[in-house]
Amino acid sequence: MKIFISSDMEGTAGVSDWEQCRATGPSYPYFCELLQAEVNAAIEGALAAGADEFLVNDSHGAMANLRPDALAGRARYLSGRHKPLYMMQGLDASFDAVFFVSYHGSMGGPSSVLSHTYSPRAIAEVRLNGVPTGESGINALVALGHGVPVVLITGDGTTAEEARPFVPGIHAAVVKTSVSRHAADSMHPEQARELIKETALEAVRRLPEAAPPAIELPATLSVRLRNADLAEMATWITGVVRDDDLSVHITDEDPIRLYRTFVTMVLLTRAIAE
């Protein structure tokens, strides 16, 4: 049984500040340890339920936040930047399930600690088929394209609820409550790991009931940019249509192609915004 794990960092119990999850921050190594322990908890829960093969796609920042030798389950480790499928690189139809570990809420949605949607300086809001979405819903497009169910998400309560319109049966390990975008009430790390392990175990045990993401095709991603120049730049990409000064949309019957177009837009606009 193969499990694909896309790991971010902002959803880790105890994380509430950008400094904690950026390589330039003095406390970054400590919070990487907390993230590593949560990734391992998810793997250990899946192992206990019968999974035996894992690929961890490190999807945060420079995408090199974990220690390969410290990964549980002899997991393969996909790290580094400029991945064509970004947070979902490495997923294919041979996998049985997808885990989203240490995810965060969207920019433009309810308050969620360190919320953003791929690029906080370029993107103000994304909707998938008219429904506000964060990275979980966008990334679920790739899982849909390969016919693989997304069965676990970890992070705060807002993050879990944002995933449900697209993955109705997802199992959520809510390890903290957002107080604001820069404050959170977190479980003790040991308790958070226990919850993640238990939730991952249950998610894998109930895998026979799981289905690929419930996203109607053709699907539309509607994106509101942070300024008009970014919206204009987005239209340089084939398939991106301007709606108004700040907004564009992309529609495609192929969910993976839709995702790739969105990622291209993110990389182009982010380069200018930063």
Explain the overall architecture.
The protein is 30% helix and 23% strand. The protein starts with a strand and ends with a helix. The chain has helices at residues 28-48, 135-146, 157-163, 189-205, 228-234, 255-273; strands spanning 2-7, 53-58, 76-78, 97-101, 123-128, 131-132, 150-156, 171-180, 183-186, 219-225, 241-242, 247-252. The protein is an alpha/beta fold and 274 residues long. The model has no long low-confidence stretch (mean pLDDT 97). The strands form two sheets. Strands 3-2-1-4-7-8-9 form a seven-stranded mixed sheet, sandwiched between helices. The chain has a five-stranded antiparallel sheet with strand order 6-5-10-12-11.
Summarize the structure.
The chain is 30% helix and 23% strand. The protein has 274 residues and is an alpha/beta fold.
Identify the overall geometry. Answer: globular
Content of β-strand:
15-25%
Strand order of the largest sheet: 3-2-1-4-7-8-9
Our Rg estimate from Cα atoms comes to 17 Å
Low-pLDDT segments: none
- The ordered string of helix (H) and strand (E) elements is EHEEEEEHEHEEHEHEEH
Question: How much helix, percentage-wise, in residues?
Answer: 25-40%
Q: In oligomeric terms, what are we looking at?
A: single chain
Mean pLDDT over the residues: 97
Q: Report the total helices.
A: 6
